[in-house]
Amino acid sequence: MFVESYLKRIGYSGNISPSIETLNKLHAHHLFNIPFENIDIHIRKPLNLEKSKLYNKIITNNRGGICYELNGLFFHLLKSLNFNTWIISGRVFDKTKGYGPNYDHLALIVKIEKKEYLVDVGFGDFSLTPLIINSTVKNTNQTFIIDKLKDNYRVSKKTKRGIKPLYIFKKEEQKISNFLEMSLFHQTSSNSKFTQNLLITIKTADGRDTITNKIYKSKSRVNEVKEEIKTLSLFLEKLNNSFGISDISLS
């Protein structure tokens, strides 16, 4: 039931054998159908990283989540499909503070036929497909690089202004329980970017839809539409129409 419901949630009905082709498709379908969002943090609803709680929120209630939730649940799906996968810790880059602490970000590694792939459906505007470690990958008009930085691997993205560092990681396997302290920090600390700004974003066929605080933005390859969200009813309408979120308590 877990696998069937998860695949239905992301609109996937293809081959589920543990291959790179399957992984690529699952990864893309996830990004097109489940938003990155931190609504619960802003309505002061504690995040719960247990498998059953993540399933109820993301699959049953058609919600999204942040990295600990999205990649945490995707890990359980890949394990259920017999992928060789494990959880890793990432340290996210901040242009004023440098790289953050351990367990700042949760991502996955999948090993297929001696190649290791970075898998990340919980970083907002990220790669559409998994990234081969120690490689340069171009997809959907974006180019990502994974290279070595001392004893870490560094993930970067090419932009018009140059190379933008995203995060660093080590390949050592981690437990979800190791992330609980940082998850609490990101839910409660005024120093967390997640408490400072409401963010809801999802990949679309030719771009991305995003709500940042009170601004809705729909961006395609050729156009960008911005709209100020002035009322609660408009906010709820955008949540439902653009992100598929309707089951939420704002009280």
What would a concise description of this structure say?
The protein is α+β, with helices and mostly antiparallel strands and 251 residues long.
Task: Note the beta-strand portion.
Answer: 25-35%
Largest sheet: 9 strands, antiparallel
Q: Poorly predicted ranges (pLDDT <50, ≥5 residues)? A: none
The strand count comes to 14
The best one-word shape is: globular
Number of helices: 8
Give a description of the structure.
- A hairpin with a 3-residue loop joins strand 2 (84-94) and strand 3 (98-99).
- Helix 4 (51-60) crosses helix 5.
- This protein has helices at 2-9, 20-33, 39-42, 51-60, 67-80, 180-188, 193-196, 232-243, and strands spanning 36-37, 84-94, 98-99, 105-112, 115-119, 131-132, 135-139, 142-149, 152-159, 162-169, 199-204, 207-212, 215-220, 224-228.
- The chain is α+β, with helices and mostly antiparallel strands and 251 residues long.
- The mean pLDDT is 93.
- The two termini are 32 Å apart.
- The strands form two sheets. Strands 2, 3, 4, 5, 6, 7, 8, 9 and 10 form a nine-stranded antiparallel sheet that branches. The protein has a five-stranded antiparallel sheet with strand order 1-11-12-13-14.
Short descriptors:
251 residues, single chain, nine-stranded antiparallel beta sheet
Task: Give the secondary structure arrangement, pairings included.
Layout: H1 2-9, H2 20-33, E1 36-37, H3 39-42, H4 51-60, H5 67-80, E2 84-94, E3 98-99, E4 105-112, E5 115-119, E6 131-132, E7 135-139, E8 142-149, E9 152-159, E10 162-169, H6 180-188, H7 193-196, E11 199-204, E12 207-212, E13 215-220, E14 224-228, H8 232-243
Antiparallel strand pairs: 1-11, 2-3, 2-4, 2-10, 4-5, 5-6, 7-8, 8-9, 9-10, 11-12, 12-13, 13-14
Helix pairs in contact: 4-5
